[in-house]
């Protein structure tokens, strides 16, 4: 797997990504420390539950890292345009470079991105043809982790047996209620936000329409891509770069476009 890291210089994006990292770190640290590990030690929960939480956390971080550092689909300075595709290309009036139709110029990133969906400050990167699959994975795993967190926070008070061997003088034990409530609020916000984002992303992919095209009032772009005739499996397979559905859930792999339309296409 070729790992070419892509960083966008944008203090606002760094701030937003830091907030996401803080939420992830807070829950990945306090939920096991306050809930999972003490209850596992006292034999109230199986080890598989502890491992599942850490796995959800690891997949979430892997998808975040890859979505924010992957090239979203930047164009090379001098693209080799196949003769048969000439009419599918246009000139960008901001960077004066040739680009395939459906590309957009991102003012935050300062360049054009192939099949750009939107610029996401929370990952400090554009979401385009080459990292859309990673963004979708991030939405999915964030939902899994935040729902898992919410359920555990709930169970801590209403279902699990009281802990007997925990040190009542420890900082985390004295502030347990506040720490768990903070975790539950974060879980609720993340789960609500990510569920609506995931839904709009999936419906966009199934109709082969990007977020920019959905928002655009120019009906010629929207209608030509909207109402995709392809099956849902085909639309998703094109985004993930593979028809192997199990690979749709793996963030640590490289993606190759299913249709080799442009030879300069980068692999992430
Ligand atoms: Zn441009
Ligand atoms: Zn951008």
Automatic annotation (TrEMBL):
One of its GO terms (cellular component) is membrane. Keywords: Acyltransferase, Membrane, Transferase, Transmembrane, Transmembrane helix. The chain crosses the membrane at residues 7-25, 45-65, 138-159, 179-199. Residues 87-216 form the Palmitoyltransferase DHHC domain. One of its GO terms (molecular function) is protein-cysteine S-palmitoyltransferase activity. It is a multi-pass membrane protein. It is found in: Membrane. Signal peptide: none annotated. The keyword Nucleus does not apply. Its EC number is 2.3.1.225. It catalyses: L-cysteinyl-[protein] + hexadecanoyl-CoA = S-hexadecanoyl-L-cysteinyl-[protein] + CoA. It holds the Pfam family DHHC. It comes from the Eukaryota. InterPro entries: Palmitoyltrfase_DHHC (IPR001594), PFA4/ZDH16/20/ERF2-like (IPR039859). The DHHC domain is required for palmitoyltransferase activity. Belongs to the DHHC palmitoyltransferase family. This is Palmitoyltransferase. It comes from Umbra pygmaea.
